[in-house]
Amino acid sequence: MKRRFEQLVDEHGGRLLQMAGLLLRSNAEAEDVVQDSLVKLWHHLPRLEAGKELGWLITCTRNACLDQLRARKRQRGFLQLVAGDNDRAGRIENPPQHETETVERVRRLRAAITAMPEPARSLLILRDIQEVDVATVASTLSLTENQVKVYTFRARRALRRRLEEEHHEQVA
Amino acid sequence: MNRSPDPTRAELEAEERLIAAERLPDDHELAADWALGRELRGLDVPPLPPGLRSRVMNATHHRQRPAWWLGLAAAVMLGLAVVLIIEPFDPPGESTTVAEAELHDLQLALASLELGARRAGSAARSELSRSLFNTRIDLDELPYASQIGRWVQPHTSNDHQPPTQESQP
Q1: Across the interface, which of B8, B40, B60 has its CB nearest the CB of A39?
Q2: Chain A interface includes B41 (CB < 8 A)
Q3: N or C: which end of chain A has fewer CB within 10 A?
Q4: A1-93 has which fold?
Q5: CA distance B127 to B118
Q6: Does B57 contact chain A (CB < 8 Å)?
Q7: Which CATH class is domain A99-172?
């Protein structure tokens, strides 16, 4: 049991952290969410079917991230109401400035993905970045497999349009 | 009248072509989608930072520790009970004479002791089995596992089987 748990942590921990980071745009919050999810996994592991762990972990982590985003939105509304200060409420961690062209492109990609609405954002993270199989993503997001394919296609195309628009704005 | 193709079906087919494609498709739009997909796949999944990993392990092992000690205490109790039960009683030497009433009392005391030891053994065995299940500790991880294994094994496998159905968060 302990060995199985450690194996799952090593196999999927990084993937969960990447997903939480892209959803929350905060490394510290992402680490907290992933830690909670993994501790929950420890308690649920005896009742989890073998092979279903990744789907369970993705669901647990994604739900926690979405809850956190909703709480953040409520808090932002409250802060705006009290202080009238938009910047203070929406502050997120900034990536380092000393970046090469490739790193800058990756940063733009990440920023564009995090700006996508749900479930497009989760689909891009799970299907395109992490290459999680269609069946697992479908069960995680409560969609059919065909819906996963169609929505992923739409999300990728929307992301591409967004990146192209950004590029044209910069050139102009 | 010509019907326009179902956009959802066209998107599904396009996505399936993209999944199957190993090289750049001929269609310009699909080629751009394919290239973006490849770029996204290039965003490597980072490993879990060692600090976070150790925090997770500490959080899970911390909860395990008190029950581990309970298991250890139960193992000691069981060992004591086993010794009491299997230790043969040596009668006093030949020169000692014992009155019939005293012998009767002695036999009664021994019978009580044996009954008490058996009950203690049974209680310790069930306590240890429960602790092993609750703490998810393998019997092999306990001290004197080989000596106490035959006492504990039937309980852990039959009496405390965890449910097997999947649970969703």
Answers
A1: B60
A2: yes
A3: C
A4: Rna Polymerase Sigma Factor; Chain: A (1.10.1740)
A5: 14
A6: yes
A7: mainly alpha
Domain range summary for chain A, segments of one domain joined by +: 1-93, 99-172
Distance of CA B82 to the CA centre of its chain: 26
B15 contacts A153? CB cut-off 8 A: yes
Interface test with B, best of A49, A128, A142, A153 (most B CBs within 10 A): A153
Q: Which residue in B36, B53, B162 is closest to A160 by CB distance? A: B36
Q: Over the stretch B65-107, which tens digit does the pLDDT of each residue have? A: 556 667 777 888 888 877 777 766 665 555 567 788 888 888 8
Q: At what angle do helices B7-20 and A145-171 cross, to 10 degrees?
A: 80
Which residues of chain B are within 8 Å of residue A163 when distances are taken between CB atoms?
36
How far apart are the C-alpha atoms of B22 and A11, rounded to whole Å? 26
* A5, A131, A146 ranked by CB distance to B41: nearest: A131
Angstrom distance (rounded) from CA B55 to CA B149: 33
Per-residue pLDDT of A3-58, as tens digits, reads 889 889 999 999 999 999 888 888 889 999 999 999 999 988 888 888 889 999 99
Q: In this complex, do A129 and B43 lie within 8 Å of one another by their Cβ atoms?
A: yes
CA-wise closest residue to A162 among A126, A122, A119, A110: A110
